[in-house]
Design goal:
Blueprint (H helix, E strand, L loop, with lengths): L11 H13 L2 H8 L3 H15 L4 E4 L2 E4 L1 H19 L6 H4 L1 E7 L1 H18 L3 E7 L13 E5 L7 E3 L2 E6 L1 H6 L23 H6 L16 H9 L5 E3 L1 H10 L3 E2 L5 E2 L4 E5 L4 H24 L1
Parallel strand pairs: 3-4, 3-5
Antiparallel strand pairs: 1-2, 5-11, 6-11, 7-8, 7-9, 7-10
Helix pairs in contact: 1-2, 1-3, 1-4, 2-3, 6-10, 6-11
């Protein structure tokens, strides 16, 4: 079959977004049906209309309806989607399985993401997740992925957790130290140090003009710093979001009410606009909101 050299095909995702929006009458209901965001539906519709050079949907208040050209195109699209869905190879279990590759820093993976994954997998059995650890402090770029979780300054909509940090210690360490009734009492305690979260901002907020700790092991990992604190090796300046399992069990105790913003927040970068990536991003944002509520209640 001879085809024009400049022929451009619409994406299947764009056709599904158009069919769902036309059938359900709104971007929001289409987004819910496709398990993606309304903005993703809008982007796919815009790309399809730009490719065709004509509007496909008209808005009357909050209701969407096909334009005259959209009605004609909708019948063709439904036929194409039905034909694709009816192909035996498209109905195989192996073909329906989708893989989603996620890069994630080690401590976030261990403390926040992995314990919650069964809930996501139960809701999305068709998705196969592949988790790849990234080490931002040592690597200039993270491995390629559909979704990237990063400890860095990001745009507001990408932030997962507006983290704070506060001193924490194991009960065994507190038994060996004089009472830590106020921040200045930390002078008698070993302070765990990591370049990923300096003590200076918290010390200044507490009215203490102390230098950064210079003694003891230097941990280039937030998880290792937490483990050292749990083992009673010192006081950690830690994020409640990462320390939540230890706070729940009593393995770590918050020492003071004072907290300051973490050096960098955790955020999510979506490198794919697939339904799988959209679903995972929406789920993780919701999970992190629940964590924030629990942390607030504990505080």
């Amino acid at each position: 079959m001879n085809e024009p050299a400049d022929l451009r095909y619409p994406s299947i995702d764009a056709l599904r977004a158009f069919e769902a929006a036309a059938r359900l009458g709104s971007l929001e209901r289409a987004a819910e049906a496709l398990c993606i965001s309304a903005s993703a539906v809008s982007k796919r519709l815009t790309a399809l209309e730009e490719l065709l050079g004509m509007p496909l949907l008209m808005r009357a208040g909050k209701q969407l309806s096909p334009s005259p050209a959209g009605k004609e195109y909708l019948q063709q699209v439904r036929g194409v989607l039905a034909a694709l869905a009816a192909m035996p190879l498209h109905q195989r279990a192996a073909q329906r399985q989708q893989r989603l590759r996620i890069t994630v820093p080690p401590t976030f993976a261990r403390q926040i993401l992995v314990p919650a994954l069964p809930g996501f997998s139960a809701a999305h059995p068709e998705l196969e997740l592949e988790l790849v650890l990234s080490i931002p402090f040592l690597e200039e770029t993270a491995p390629e992925a559909d979704v990237e979780i990063r400890n860095a300054e990001l745009a507001v909509g990408q932030v997962l957790l507006m983290d704070s940090v506060t001193p924490m210690a194991a009960p065994a360490l507190l038994e060996r130290l004089p009472a830590l009734a106020r921040p200045a009492d930390l002078a008698a305690a070993p302070l765990l140090r990591t370049p990923l979260q300096p003590w200076a901002p918290w010390l200044r907020a507490a009215g203490l003009d102390w230098p950064e700790p210079s003694q003891g092991t230097r941990f280039v990992d937030l998880g290792l710093t937490l483990e050292a604190a749990v083992c009673g090796q010192g006081v950690a300046l830690a994020r409640p979001s990462l320390a939540l399992p230890y706070l729940r069990s009593g393995a770590l105790i918050r020492l003071f009410p004072l907290s300051v913003p973490a050096d960098k927040p955790y955020g999510l970068l979506q490198h794919s606009d697939s339904d799988a990536a959209e679903s995972f991003a929406a789920w993780l944002h919701a999970h992190c909101r629940q964590l924030a509520e629990e942390i607030s209640a504990l505080a």
